[in-house]
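To: structure desk
From: M.T.
Subject: fold request, one chain
Message: Could you run this one when you get a chance? Sequence is below, nothing fancy, just the single chain.
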Amino acid sequence: MAKEPDFLKGLGIQNITEEIQSGGVNSIIQDWGNKLIEALRRKLKNNKSNASGSLSANIQPTIEPTSKGEKLIITMNEYWVDVEEGQAPGTMVSAKSLIQWMKEKRRYGAFKSAFDKRIESVVARKISKNIYAGGTKARPFIKPTLTQKRINELSQNVADYFAANLFK
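Reply: Done. Structure tokens follow.
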């Protein structure tokens, strides 16, 4: 653990590094991250962008220590970008990935009759050609959810915690 600067002790502040890495700050960050993830999942649902449920289900938070404090990392399936920004015409989506998507839709009970296993490769190729010709519509779920107001809320909660706990 890094040594605390001496001038902080003169201000009555002790163990700031410990406070940052304590359950208090981590708890604030974790709660904020969980609320953000709930909001992202709601936005995916409201956008009708959660076809198989796998993107929503795989949004996960992780808090990692850094030299400056803590950072919250939110991970999710790689295709989140295609949902957030859409795909431009000329984008080639492999039939293999579309077949996987269809299997996920079947597994979750969506469109059971629409994707007959016997013709799934034909349907996948047709969908791929349609995406190549026209692209896909953007369905933003991060940009409208991760707002400056939400970020300010986290900053204020951490500041309030420090104000209440550092000068004990």
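Reply (cont.): Residues 87-136 form one domain. Let me know if you need anything else for the meeting.
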